[in-house]
Amino acid sequence: MEADRTTFRAVFAVREFRALWAAEALSQAGDQVARVALAVLVYGATESAALAGLTYALTLAPSFLGGVFLSGLADRFPRRAVMIVADVARAVFIALAAVPGLPFWVLCVLVGLVSFVQAPFKAAQLALLPDVLPGDKYVVGMSIRTITMQTAQMLGFAGGGVLLTALTPSTGLLLDAASFVASALFVWFGVRSRPAAQKVARQNGAPAPGSFATSAFAGAKLLWQDKGLRTLVVIDWLSALLILYEGLAAPYTAELGDGPAAVGLILAADPLGSAIGAFVFARFVPAHRRPTLLGPLTVASCVPLLGCLFMPGLVASVVLFAVAGALGTAVTIQAMASFARGVPDHGRAQAMGLLQAGLATIQGLSPLLGGLAADAVGTARVIGLVGVLGLLIAMPAAIAWRHAITARPDVWLSPEADEK
Question: Could you tell me which of 401, 406, 152, 417 has the C-alpha nearest to residue 282?
């Protein structure tokens, strides 16, 4: 059913998507270089692995608070403007962090602010994409975005290490600042201006949004009360839990009896599988079938982790984690597409921000809690037990999603392939 599929070429033909894609790819690669540079900079100045780890955590953790309290900015103000202002702010903060001789606490504050401001940028971007890519183009665009981000992450980390053999850490941070400036320029020149979603909603009779706390509470209430959205949140957050193995790569390979080189193979398995899964799901699965496959794919994504209960070797582990990454990425892409479809436009950014805040929390806490459990029962067993826990969550979630799409097919199963 070729007519039911949107090609990658058709998505790249959309000028606004090309601008958003280039902007995010640049800033993502710059972020990875900056994380390597910060680790080198802090460890070189303090010779403390704990402080280096703290600095790295600050590149991620504050995005939770930003996701809860600042995502609503992208509903109250034009989303294009929010993205540009966030990019400029991040460029200023990371450029200041490059100043030599800063006190450690100042560096921490600046790095935390970069992470904090990332949240409204991400919420604005995710809320804008359904307008830029209507119908099935959105799913294909999310697949392209996944492939690009995974590639940029791998190249950014690898390239960051190579660059810093020739450049100073401060120069690496300045490169990250330049990537944010470039991102802002892509958005400025490539994305057309649209009115704020809540302004349009108020013109159509919707009430004023209230305070930021009120908006966050209203967004959380919407996600909780709508059965379909609530199920999608569970599915998306479960996908974040299942990649626990990335955070436990080092102890896992040590338990297998392999050396440090094997850690890189384990870490590369998920991005590789994710890129393959995104391509296959977007290219070969018909648009009208994707929502109905979400439940079975969610259950299937837990199964590869069960193999860890049998202590597989390195090669088998890489294959298992690659398959898990492929299935999990297909789940995430369709869950995000359905989520964007089910949330009203005037509250889409706030809802996306809350969803991303939960994802960030799970991705941050699961390796910590998993590591504590692994010290007691072993890393491979913990990863396998997470697969068991995943199945216990995924099976009722799949049933709930089936009920949701049966009850409201007009929302969750409306044809999308006609908008190409």
Answer: 417
Residue found by looking up tokens 């996306």 in the block:
352
Residue 95 in tokens:
């450029």
Q: Which tokens sit at 368?
A: 């910590």
CA distance 86 to 318: 37
CATH number at residue 142: 1.20.1250.20
* 267 in the same domain as 123: no
Structure tokens at 384: 């396998």
Residues 6 or more apart in contact with residue 415 via CB below 8 angstroms? 287, 288
Taking Cα atoms as reference points, which of 370, 368, 281 lies closest to residue 330?
Answer: 281
Quick one: tokens of 414?
Answer: 């409306």
Question: In whole angstroms, what is the distance from residue 53 CA to residue 69 CA?
Answer: 26
Count, in order, helices (H) and strands (E) of the chain. 20, 0
- Residue ranges, the chain, pLDDT below 70: 1-5, 35-36, 39, 43, 47-61, 152-165, 205-213, 260, 414-420
Domain that holds residue 9: 1-188
pLDDT at residue 420, as a whole number: 39
Round to whole Å and give the CA distance between 58 and 35.
Answer: 10
User: In this predicted structure, what is the pLDDT of residue 417?
Assistant: 40
150 and 277 in a common domain: no
Number of structural domains in the chain: 2
Distances 339 to 85, 120, 202, 345, 372 between C-alpha atoms, Å:
26, 18, 23, 11, 33
342 and 216 co-located in one domain: yes
